[in-house]
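Dear Dr. H.,

I hope your travels went smoothly. While you were away I took the liberty of generating a structure for the chain from your last submission, since the lab meeting agenda had it listed for discussion. I wanted you to have the full record in hand beforehand rather than looking at slides cold. The sequence, exactly as received, is reproduced here:
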Amino acid sequence: MLIYALNRVLTLVPTLLAASFLVFMFIHLIPGDPASILLGDTATPEEVAQLSRELGLDEPLWTQYVLWLGNVLQGDLGTSVFFREPVLSVIADGAETSILLATMTMFWIVLFGVPIGIVSAMRHGSWVDQATSGGAMLFASVPTFWLGLYLILIFSVGLGWFPSSGFPSIADEGGASNLRYLVLPSLTLAAPNAALIIRLIRASMLDVSREDHVRTARAKGLHPVRVAIKHIFRNALIAVSAAFGFTFAALVSEAVVTETVFSLPGIGRLVVQSILRRDYPVIQGVILVIVVFYTAINLLVDLAYASLDPRVSLK
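The corresponding predicted structure, in token form, is as follows:
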């Protein structure tokens, strides 16, 4: 498995290089000049040109890319045009919120999605199955901003159980108790994603239940719950594991709407703000980190296949 992992890492190098090139070039195609935005409408052309020289924006794109890539390979993603801080520091400030939000969301997805999906598959065709399938489709269709606003209205404004916005760092005063700020946002994100996991687990388990080894287990007189968990769910989990991996990766980078509704200082909101500010180094750094994160998740999912199913050969 170690050799397979090393080979996969080596094959990812060209992918990451191509991704870095595309990210850099596409970002610089965005209309607007960072120097003009920073200085405002009252700036003179001479002031804009001087700031562009200071930021290195007057160099040809190829030169800028080579310099940027060389710094990236040394662990330096550059300096934010807007914050005037290292990009890694800016990303780290938002990464705490996004990673904790994604982790808490995955907790709700596993807590609710997995058992409901199993029950729905075991009671296939019954009113329980119809109710859970209908509920899953409903939550998968509900816009996250609408659900988030109603959760704020009910549990923050009405009951006062949870904060409605913001997220103080857990390193600040309050520590782990600050996680209560993420309860409503994580539930907002978990609802549609748990609905999809429920449908996927149900479909995968129904497919596995038709295989010969399941019929053999039932013919031996094994308890239905044991058959469902040991023989059906375990094999269905092979297909579901990929969905869990990529759902977590997507939650870290795609929670823009939820972070906006709850005013969370996360990665998604940082990207949107950086695009509006034409903060090229931050945009490039965030997207590159997300690409690396996705490729790492993809590698972990592939390795998980071998752990879940010994029949899978890693070559």
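Two observations you may find useful: The mean pLDDT is 76. Residues 88-308 form a domain with the MetI-like fold fold (CATH 1.10.3720.10).

With kind regards,
E. W.
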